[in-house]
Amino acid sequence: MVTAVQPHPRRRTAASILTTVRLPALRHLGPNWYATVMGTAIVANAGAALPVGIPGLRTACTAVWTLSAALLAVVLAARAAHWAHHRDQARAHLLDPAVAPFYGCLSMALLAVGIGTLTVGRDVIGEPAAVATAIALFCAGTLTGLAAAVVVPYLMVVRHKVAPGTASPVWLLPVVAPMVSASFGPLLVPRLPAGQWREAMLLGSYAMFGVSLLASLLILPMVFARLVHHGPLPLALTPTLFLVLGPLGQSTTAVSKLADVAPGAIQAPYAEGLAAFAVIYGIPVMGFALMWLALAGAMVVRAARDGMPFALTWWAFTFPVGTCVTGAEGLARHTGLAAIEWLAVGLYAFLVAAWAVTGVRTLRGLFGGALLAAPVKTGSTRVGAHRCRCAPTS
Question: Do residues 255 and 215 touch, judged by C-beta distance below 8 A?
Fold first, then answer.
């Protein structure tokens, strides 16, 4: 009689289990994914400064900031893995005029989370840790933002093949980053030693305000000329029209915050002048921002009726609108007008709705694999899952 010996089932090691886990493909994960961090952080930052009291809002903003910080860590790790394992694709992104401008989003993601760290994050991690983290994020975000503001336009001139009539609002992304630094600087001014340190941070922030503003003024006429002479943007790129709101709202935010801290950083004659400049500059610019919001909104409605697909470009509905919220909050503080306070509340309601819808659609596209699929070129437009993925963000 022969007894058959059954082999013991082989135990699976942790390494073998990990090898069977299907990780998302990172080859086509571009810098546009930092827009998810920016769009989430601005919900917390704008909500924390609303000029009206809403029960539970502070707690909600703290939770959203925590989510934005976690998103930043995940996207940074994913992008580091992308550069480590797909360097050829990473270099191709830099040489692609449709993708390279999104490198400005890295800076704005760092800065947006840093601003939230000082405004609401300190409730979670404490004041000393919040200040140290914010300084680190400010330095990293400012350096990368200034680098993007120079490197991307340089590549556009000497390496990219940019056809006439293809100007895009996406071109604003690398040059808007220093404006976010200009809004972040005032939060650090009171925490610096009085005298030279505070004045240097104040004037340095104004310098970055000027860098971003003048560069934006070079690009905006080209964007509008492209629309007038060549018609509406492709459907999937239509949300990027909201990117124009970025330099408008962020510059208004910057001058308001800088005026708030000027008395403790610079001599009296200049401090009063900067307070007046905040209103004289901010009101006309916010008026133009509302006009552009109406124009861009009408174009989006038109595109939606024509079947506008979902793409990461929908994140353009978040961060740029959020800068208008913070800009309106600053103007309300300096003018005392209730009408501007309610404008900030109305824009914030739109921001939260846009963030929720875009976030849900992004998760669906991510877990379904569509947003990480390889893009396909059709004519002059790169198309992938959900049609256009080359310029997906805000």
Answer: no
Instruction: Please check whether residue 278 is in contact with residue 314, taking contact to mean a CB–CB distance below 8 angstroms.
Output: no
What are the structure tokens assigned to 319, written together? 């961060």
Separation CA 129–CA 368 (nearest Å): 38
Query: For residue 147, what are its two tokens?
Result: 């680098």
Q: How far apart are CA 145 and CA 176, in angstroms?
A: 8
Say how far apart CA 293 and CA 291 lie, in whole Å.
Answer: 5
Please give the angle made by the CA atoms of 293, 118 and 284, to the nearest 5 degrees: 30
Tokens of 302: 């038109």
User: What pTM was estimated for this model as a whole?
Assistant: 0.87
Let me know how long the chain is.
Answer: 394
199's tokens: 């004045």
Q: Are 334 and 299 in contact (CB under 8 A)?
A: no
What is the per-residue pLDDT across 83-110, written as a single tens digit (0 to 9) for each? 888 888 888 888 888 899 999 999 999 9
DSSP run (H or E) holding 258: helix 245-261
The per-residue DSSP string of 90-142 comes to HHHHHT-TTTGGGGHHHHHHHHHHHHHIIIIIHHHH-HHHHHHHHHHHHHHHH
